[in-house]
Amino acid sequence: MSNKEVRVRFAPSPTGPLHMGGVRTALYNYLFAKKNNGKFLLRIEDTDQTRFVPGAQEYIMDALKWCAIFPDEGPGIGGNHGPYIQSERKSHYAPKAQELVDRGWAYYAFDTAEDLNQMREQAKQMKMPNWQYNSITRGAMKNSLTLPANEVEARIKNGDPFVIRFKMPRNRDIRFEDIIRGWVVVNTNNLDDKVLYKSDGMPTYHLANIVDDHEMEISHVIRGEEWLPSAPLHVLLYEAFGWECPQFAHLPLLLRPDGNGKLSKRDGDRLGFPVFPTNWTTSDGEVYSGYRENGYFSGAFINMLAFLGWNPGTQQEIFSLEELVEAFSLERVSKAGAKFDADKTKWFQQQYLRSTDNTILAKELKAKQRLSEDLDYLEKVCNVMKERATFIKDIHTEGDYFFQAPRDYDETVLKKKWKADTHQIMTNWLDIFKNIEEFNASNVEAAFKNYLIEIDKGIGAVLPAFRLLVTGKAMGPSMFEIVEILGQQESVKRMETGLNNIPA
Ligand code: GLU
């Protein structure tokens, strides 16, 4: 690596919501920048006006914020290389396109959509299905290389629509070293004369991307594998301008859980997991669900994403964002596509839930589930329930008995564990239970164990009935802790009600 300042960018197009693959690209850029004391930029690439989706830019910025991936420079953030939205940089591109024409690296093309269609049709009939505007075919088209100079001038003066195309050199091997993939070599005979500047007065992605990466002094271009085929053109554009080329790193694709193809935005809701960081509602009112609204912590989501294509080379799996920064390197990113794993994602979420402080959990539980119980009480509930939950809301749904007395009693326990003598055993236990003086989990446990000895029963024969009366359930955390949290009075009341409801 040269000793130039590390400056990287995440450059989404606002054509829709950010898919989790996009968030991973942003994350790797962020981690790489922070690790190398560099800068992470956000640039909005909105030059394709036909694909612009209202709300997409706001969505992207909000999603990054949720993930705590904060850009150092970008729209609404500032920086010395702005503006950071391409449509606001329009004036930068036309002179650059012209410069390439003047230097013989690009040319005007006047072909209409019909002209191009006709060429494609003709080629198809001649059994050449993939017609391209390239170093061979350009000679038969209407452009500044084939038309006389005065006609070209007249057409431009006249306001005839034109595009500017890159004049792809014939038969050159373009080489560049990708940090993840190693040397990539592509022969220019396989590349077409891409449009750089469109008839609507806007640059295409290729031109705007290169001009901006240069002007924003980007040192490393870290982006998805789908851009690898564009990289040779980009390398040539840097050469054409006489600019230093940034280093490239093309990230592996995100694959469906079965490894069969790229993870698409439709897969998520079809396969039962979110593909987007946060909910996205289309203009037709269709909702694609997001990790945030599904109850994931952004830390767990980020941790999971970091591992889709990268690993630290150790056994450690749980990483905070700061720890990821410390551990991250592009050298440890793999070339092979990374399979998304919904169960593993839930596992990360569970680990995060377990390690979150009870005070924080209690506050979120109260707010999210709109509970009226006080925070002290909720903290105790979180403490015993979090081992059994994946999402905060599970603490409420799985531990519903902390919020209301049981309305019904688990059928299986009733069938298998409620024997002829259970009613009597529980009535006697209630008598003892009622009179426990210093009421807390360990005293209840001691009293219960004494009682078991007295009646000569095993814990497995009696505890399920106790649990059933107090919670209505077959399973849960320690019964002694549950009654301590509920309190003696409430527990007694429940046992009495239960003994009335369940016939002897
Ligand atoms: N605007 C492109 C995208 O939507 C950026 C590709 C790049 O990073 O060069 O992914």
Can you lay out the helices and strands and say which pair or pack?
Elements (H helix, E strand, L loop, with lengths): L6 E4 L9 H16 L3 E4 L13 H11 L23 H13 L3 E4 L3 H13 L23 H9 L5 E4 L6 E6 L3 E6 L7 E3 L7 H11 L4 E5 L6 H11 L5 E5 L2 E2 L11 H5 L8 E2 L5 E2 L9 H9 L14 H7 L10 E2 L2 H14 L2 H11 L6 H11 L6 H7 L12 H7 L4 H13 L6 H15 L3 H13 L7 H8 L1 H14 L3
Parallel strand pairs: 1-2, 8-9, 10-13
Antiparallel strand pairs: 3-4, 4-7, 5-6, 11-12
Glutamic acid (GLU) binds next to helix 6.
Q: Would you give an account of this structure?
A:
The chain is mainly alpha-helical and 504 residues long. It has five domains: 7-75 and 207-253, Rossmann fold; 93-197, Alpha-Beta Complex (Glutamyl-tRNA Synthetase, domain 3), CATH 3.90.800; 267-353, Glutamyl-trna Synthetase, Domain 2 (Glutamyl-tRNA Synthetase, domain 2, Orthogonal Bundle), CATH 1.10.1160.10; 357-399, Helicase, Ruva Protein, domain 3, CATH 1.10.8; 411-501, Orthogonal Bundle (Arc Repressor Mutant, subunit A), CATH 1.10.10.350. The chain has helices spanning 20-35, 56-66, 90-102, 113-125, 149-157, 205-215, 231-241, 267-271, 298-306, 321-327, 342-355, 358-368, 375-385, 392-398, 411-417, 422-434, 441-455, 459-471, 479-486, 488-501; strands spanning 7-10, 39-42, 106-109, 163-166, 173-178, 182-187, 195-197, 220-224, 247-251, 254-255, 280-281, 287-288, 338-339. The strands form six sheets. The chain has a three-stranded antiparallel β-sheet with strand order 3-4-7.
